[in-house]
Specification:
about 325 residues, alpha/beta, Rossmann fold, binds the ligand C=CC1=C(C)c2cc3[nH]c(cc4nc(cc5[nH]c(cc1n2)c(C)c5CCC(=O)O)C(CCC(=O)O)=C4C)c(C)c3C=C, binds fe (ii) ion, Ferrochelatase, metal-binding, lyase
Length: about 325
């Protein structure tokens, strides 16, 4: 490590040689208002990794229809889940950052933890610039998506590369692309399920609901589906569940194409109709609770279940800032620090 105190006298360069951790997540609107949601969705849905249909056709649909209709609807949903700390995804991400910082320092590691979002704020570019200013030139990137997918993890890499293309001194980079089968992740999920079962009893069915994606992405080689299946297998094996005890499903469909199935809402409805009136739902693809878990699962899907005759619906929270989750993150980044 270079040992400069203050700026170098000859070059005016910053002291360098520090290592830093960069936590990344999707991003969320700054406010639960239509203009704020529109700005966020415009950036998110313009990403060619997220919507893979011919560019020109998509931009016409996006700006002609979707960005005129969806922001107001989504803003109303965000309002339902908004907290004093802002969007749950942002609030929880900040807590994760602070707790991981503390965990690393408890473990005797003197590296700063930074937080950036792929869309919206704090932006990837501005966070990388802040790291550079702090003298960090060795960056460990942890996208908080347990199962690699091109529209999530892949595009985090794009955003980092796009910024670094402008830099003269490209830092050392360590990119953690997936942790779907990491022992500590599987154990943390299994323990959170066991805790729920201990308090509320074993449900008639455990629904493991993952965020969906178009089925075409799978055919084109995206490993996401297989990684979700592996997480499901490892967690259910750890819990000693039999095939009848659980089901893997996919939620948050968007657009007209066929998405990965079975769909969460249709599954939950048919479970209730078949007399499986007591279920617990967990969403292992989400490292932090957000619109898709708090509103779509706890809100919408609960209603679907109850209207179809279901009696007991439990949502098992994301790992959020649980100690086991933070320790898992520390375990993932430590080999590079
Ligand atoms: C349009 C295609 C989409 C793909 C493919 C997709 C994949 C994907 N997304 C997540 C995680 C999150 N998605 C969230 C919200 C969200 N996702 C899409 C679309 C796609 N996602 C939309 C349009 C939205 C916005 C919500 C709305 O307006 O209804 C979120 C929550 C954000 C928040 O602010 O709370 C997360 C997290 C994963 C893991 C994934 C994997 C394939
Ligand atoms: Fe999504
Ligand atoms: Fe949704």
């Amino acid at each position: 490590m270079y040992k400069f105190s203050g700026l170098d006298k000859k070059t005016g360069h910053q002291p360098r040689g520090k290592k830093g951790v960069l936590l990344m997540n999707l991003g969320t609107p700054d406010e639960a208002t239509t203009p704020s949601v529109r700005r966020y969705l415009a950036e998110f849905l313009s990403d060619p990794r997220v919507v893979e249909i011919p560019r020109l056709v998509w931009l016409v649909i996006l700006h002609g229809i979707i960005l005129r209709v969806r922001p107001a609807k989504s803003a109303a949903l965000y309002k339902e889940i908004w907290t004093d700390g802002g969007s749950p995804l942002m609030d929880i991400s900040k807590k994760q950052q602070a707790k991981l910082q503390q965990q690393l320092s408890d473990d005797g590691i003197n590296s700063n933890v930074y937080l950036a979002m792929r869309y919206g704020n704090p932006s990837t570019a501005s966070t990388l610039q802040a790291m550079h200013k702090d003298g960090v030139d060795d960056i460990t990137v942890l996208p908080l998506y347990p199962q690699y997918a091109a529209p999530t993890t892949g595009t985090v890499f794009d955003a980092i590369a796009r910024e670094l293309m402008k830099w003269r001194f490209v830092p050392s980079l360590h990119f953690i692309n997936t942790y779907h089968d990491n022992d500590d992740y599987i154990t943390a999920l299994a323990e959170s399920i066991e805790k729920d079962f201990a308090v509320n009893g074993k449900p008639k069915k455990l629904v493991m609901s993952f965020h969906g994606m178009p089925e075409r992405n799978l055919q084109l080689g995206d490993p996401y589906y297989c990684f979700c299946a592996k997480t499901t297998r490892l967690v259910t094996e750890k819990l000693g569940l039999s095939n009848d005890d659980y089901v893997m499903t996919f939620q948050s469909r968007f657009g007209k194409a066929k998405w990965l199935g079975p769909y969460t809402d249709a599954t939950i409805e048919s479970l209730a109709k078949d007399g499986i009136d007591d279920i617990a739902v967990i969403c292992p693809a989400f490292s932090a609770d957000c619109l898709e878990t708090l509103e779509e699962i706890q809100g919408e899907n609960r209603e679907v279940f109850e209207e179809a005759g279901g009696k007991s619906f439990r949502y098992i929270a994301a790992l959020n800032d649980d100690d086991a989750h933070i320790k898992m993150m520390a375990g993932l980044v430590k080999p590079y620090l």
